Amino acid sequence: MDANADADTVTKTKVTALPGDGIGPEVMQATMRILEAANAPIEWEMAEAGAEVFKKGLITGVPRETLDSISRNGLALKSPLETPVGFGGKSANVTLRKHFELYANIRPVRELPGVTTPFSGRGIDMVIVRENVEDVYAGIEHMQTTTVAQCLKLMTAPGCERIIRAAFALAAAEERKHVTCATKANIMKLTEGLMKRVFEKVGPEFSEFKQDHIIIDNCAHQLVIAPEQFDVIVTSNMNGDIISDLAAGLVGGLGIAPSSNLGDHAAMFEAVHGSAPQIAGKGLANPTALLSAAIMLLRHISAFEVAETVEQALFITLAEGKNLTGDLSPKGHGVGTAAFTDQVIANLGRSSNLPSRVYSKLELKAWPELTAHTEPDTRELVGIDVFLESGLGSEELGRSLEEIAQDTPFRLNGVSNRGVQVYPATGGQTFLVDHFAARFMLKQPIPLNASSANGQAEISYLVQRIGAKFAWMHIEKLQRFDGKDAFERPQGEG
Ligand code: NAD
């Protein structure tokens, strides 16, 4: 095929390019060179994010001009960005994903020709669809006491539904057959369980696909035992982060794994790997992952033919094993980024033995079309959990809180420490920290249908009494929807 065909007649799509940190600029330059040689219909708009931006004191790591550029173009190709560790700057990657609500992280994992691993020949060809903006990665964290840290795991019905719908849309676009939902619903019944429930509710609309649910730890196990059984896996943010790295390891590692981050209004394509500071600036980095992300970008803009030309040139380069970078070659036989890039360019127009998959444009559905959630007919407030800091033993604390609850609309149900009931004592051997949850149940439940603010006066009264004696950290309302508890019980209760 002539890669130069129609080059002058094609309208170019503007894409924001972020060269990033470490090996980022090297793999970006290699990718751009290959795309240019293939006459890809893309016009780049260069933009800044990451380490240099943090150094200037901007804690988001992404300047306004970069956000504006991505907003205008709706498309970005991004090299890895360094994340400051610990306190201080936020992850610039997470900033970008959250700013543009890029909720679907698509991570294809396919055996590549010439990349030999212990799993070669097993026919691994799957896509992990990871929820990208909710879960513990929302980064809502607070120290509760000087020794107790808390991270809120927020998962929402619309968040679960749109990622599940995205997984089915992807399965359809790539003519895949099987969608697996992987969760930890057996332990986190309300958060991870929500994703499982939404999957089961939405699934019947897509009856052309085989569907099943798997517990995430078994999913990790099955990915190693029999990875070929998976086609599309949809999962929550942290689960997806971990299993997609694991899955990338099955086919040759992070150095070759691409991903896209899709939202309703923007799409960002990137390598899964980081900035590899150890080899940065040495011209040794493998650009395969970013190039593969650029191939996903080409398909996203419906440039299917150029995408296939570049993909086949990459496949044949890997298959023939000439001029591969050090990470893919026997020790001492690797070439640099530039020589590998030249080889891919030389192979443009050639085809490998591994055909490109079937792809059509992936259409995500916008929020108004979400249907899984239905409002309950009745909603009531039945109690509160008050999290408080105390150095007291559990007996003394429990008795004191029982006394405080007297003459209030509440009674003390129990006290727990790190999710385990410690008052009334259960005989368990719980290690105590200075952070307790006291569960108070209302003597009379308060209906919340008329106003979800009902009951706040009663709560304030109790909390004021508690505050006179103890330092409380936060309060959680205990609700019942349609007569069912909308909260979990501590271990050992009842
Ligand atoms: P890393 O992915 O940068 O490196 C892991 C290992 O893989 C290293 O041995 C590295 O040399 C090698 N490697 C990675 N990409 C390669 C390539 N293209 N060619 C050859 N070898 C390659 O992970 P890390 O060291 O944990 O992270 C380094 C930095 O990157 C951190 O600041 C981290 O926060 C950041 N990071 C960014 C992203 C992103 O931008 N999406 C993703 C992961 C990590």
SSE layout and pairing:
Layout: E1 13-18, H1 24-37, E2 42-46, H2 51-55, H3 64-73, E3 75-78, H4 92-99, E4 104-110, E5 125-131, E6 141-143, E7 149-151, H5 157-173, E8 178-183, H6 191-202, E9 210-215, H7 216-225, E10 232-235, H8 237-250, E11 258-262, E12 267-271, H9 288-300, H10 304-320, H11 337-346, E13 379-389, H12 394-405, E14 410-417, E15 420-423, E16 435-447, H13 456-467, E17 471-481, E18 484-485
Parallel strand pairs: 1-2, 1-3, 3-12, 5-10, 8-9, 8-10
Antiparallel strand pairs: 4-5, 4-11, 6-7, 11-12, 13-16, 13-17, 14-15, 14-16, 17-18
Helix pairs in contact: 1-9, 1-11, 5-6, 7-8, 9-10, 10-11
Task: Give a verbal description of the structure.
It is a single chain. The chain is of the alpha/beta class and 494 residues long. The protein is built from 13 helices and 18 strands. The strands form three sheets. The chain has a ten-stranded mixed beta sheet with strand order 2-1-3-12-11-4-5-10-8-9, with helices on both faces. A hairpin with a 5-residue loop joins strand 6 and strand 7 (149-151). It is elongated. Nicotinamide-adenine-dinucleotide binds next to loops.
